[in-house]
## 1
Amino acid sequence: MILETYVAVLAVIVVFAFIYFVFFSGAKFAFQAIDPDKKKEDFRNYEDSERQDTVEKFYREQHTKMTMEYVKAKRDKHLRFDKCCKTVWEMAEYLDTVTDDSDPDTDLSQLMHAIQAAEACRKAYPGDEYDWFHITCFIHDLGKILLVNDPSLKLTGDEQWCVVGDTFPVGCKFDEESNVFPQYFKQNADYNDKRYNTMNGIYEPHCGLDDVIMSWGHDDYIYFIAEKQSTLPLKALYMLRYHSFYPWHSKGGYMHLCNEQDMENLKWVQAFNQFDLYSKNQDCPTLEEVAPYYKEKIEKYFPKPVQW
């Protein structure tokens, strides 16, 4: 009898503890940024992820509005690098409040994702001979400062759809086999423009991706910053510019535009991708643990404060 009473009381305690945890403690059964059990095939799920509505809305807007004319206007605005002057580390700290609506796999801040990706790279490619790789992983998303509205830094806060998400060439036919949500390209003004809707469009076959105008976003922005203001090697610049070009490095699209240099560097973009994508289910070190290493390496490859 005593044992039965004890079990009954314990059950009541457990029930009340659960109710308190759910309804009063502030705990949320929502999307989790870190899932250690997540399998590779579960990443980039654009069919029924927990963020499906947000992600599909994002790509509907991006694919509808990302025209050649729009890209040229954004390049003219942002590639003047006349916003502010900060070190790479200062800008990384500044981005700690920014998340990415196009990403179905994480809701971590951009600083935490940068640390996650870079630390995964350090484990796989240890040593100073690969420090350029570590820094590339750390800075790859810093172009997302374009999302921030801060007049004191001359940042005007662009919409998510023109800063993040998968990238693709403009000025030629949209590849409906390799792009996600390709149905929304039909609403794009360039879709029926005879200058841009053939396989090569305005480009020569195998002209090389350097001569191709990509959809505007954080990739091009950080690429041009690094090209002009860092000593990072060419393979690092490829990682920065094409890390969101999933139609190319993951689906094999747009190969008709590539030259020998592109194909040589494709393997490095793919090597980078495993740390950008699959690190999102790993524990994230604290800022204090990793700051000394990245500050030192940033000064090596970005010896001066950056004009953003």
## 2
Amino acid sequence: MGLNWAEHTVEIAAPIQTCFDAITDYETFPSWQSAVVDTEVLDWDEHGRGKRVRLVVDAKVRKVEYTLDYRYDEPTRIEWDFVEGNGINDADGHYLFEDLGGGRTRATYEFGLEVGIPLPGPVARRAHKSTLKASVEDLKREAERRAASAAAAQPERPAAAEPPPETAAEMPTESGSTAREARFAEEVGIKMPEPPPAAQPTAGRADDWASDGSHTVAELPGVLVGEAASIGRRVARRGIRTAQDVGGGAAEAGIGAARRAAGAGLDAAGAVRTRAGRLLGLDRDDHHPR
């Protein structure tokens, strides 16, 4: 009599792996494959997939039972070999899956069957094609249901909130940063280093003074002498204040220091005057140009 072949192809709105997992989930067939009455996985392969499976199917004209050994090329191909049957003499075929992209799959089921009961050819072929087509359509519904359930189970990712813009009061400044660091150091018991003392201006040597452009050369001697005398007076006042502060027997030493400072100021003024005189060509005695 030979095998009676039938084939059916359908596009499924589900990823290829979802389709493969559904059609190899043999123990659930009775709940979504309309023609399958019962299944039993008799052996498993090393990947936990059904290797030998017994199926009881309502083939329209009567119920048949058969056992198949499965081979897999996951997730694109499934093949089987006929082991034994009741009402079935032989069976062969394969399932093919093609990834169409975008979460869609093309499924093709080709199945050859030789029944073991006397039936007219046209009746057997019509029953076989009808059962095979229903099986593929059942797979489509089940795979799409699983894909929709998986999508619904994934939590939505909330949109990342943008940080509020910093106000002028919140924007870090050098002084604010220093104050925060000082507070933090105080909390954890760290002593902040003292800031370095401000550099004190030092009086330059009288011989290095020169005009800054605000006076003429003729006015320079008098200006420099006045500056030197002013420095001497300031130094003298510091010496007197020092003497007054230390009090008692140190007062005389402070006054002496003031006098020496005043003398140094006068010496500096004399040196400046001498240099200015040389620059202007003045005689030491008459202070007139030669």
## 3
Amino acid sequence: MASKLFHTGLLDGQVTIVTGGGSGLGRASALELAACGAEVIVCGRRVEPLEETAARAEGGRGEALACDIREEDQVSELVDHVLDRHGQIDLLVNNAGGQFLTPAEDITPKGFRAVIRLNVEGTWLMTQAVATRAMIPESRGGKIVNVTLSPHHGLPGMAHSSAARAAVENLTRVLSIEWARFGIKLTALAAGPFATDTMITKYPRPVVEGAALSVPLQRLGTEEEFAWLVAFLASPAGDYHSGTILTIDGARDNWFGPWPPLGLTDESGKPLAEERRPDDAAPSGGERQPTPVEQQPTRAERQPTRAERQPTSREQE
């Protein structure tokens, strides 16, 4: 299906890899990139959903490859395959990741390591392999988009993922500096709650139902809205974006729930405001009255004190 926003040839000639491209934001991003003309390789652990994504790619510009990004040898084989077939990699979207909802005190060492290994180590293995083999040689350059999470001020129930995503965001900032000399641009997209299959089917029903209510815009994001931002960054319009964390979450990072909050409005629905006393404002049509401090005479206006009349040591000389 053609893109709703961008013209078909926007990304002609580009080769992209999207990890975790078998569902959700990864699939939507892959399909949008293909719709804009890019050759898209989607990878993940399960090949069946990847093949479905590839089959839906516009113009047959999709390819599915099984790869566990936590395994260095598999990552190496993936990058070698793409370079052997296409000769270049212009964009890497590190979308693969995962976590599970649980109180921090119940996270086992194994569970913590599993989340860190997938989100941090997997992202690093893909990033370094693509950069060193396809982007750094001859300073060819390219773009890397890392997908993280919002909100940034704490995500209770996901301490492991919060630590992992913060690590990826700081890695993005550091590499944007170190690899700028090779023409590599890195950006992180911090995604808030989106209406993906994973969101709707994986988490408890109360969590899903309450997610939209936690967003000031009072809705979940759509997969297309995320994919459009990925395509924008992949296009020439994103050539000066690097080292930034772009948050796409309907203002969830700034506030929890709607504004004004429920119960804090007047009868018309307007936010409650402080009642000002008449003397808080300037008299209508007149000048503002001086405050008690302003009414005190200045030193030039008052008579000098005895101490002030004493000559200084310089004057006595």
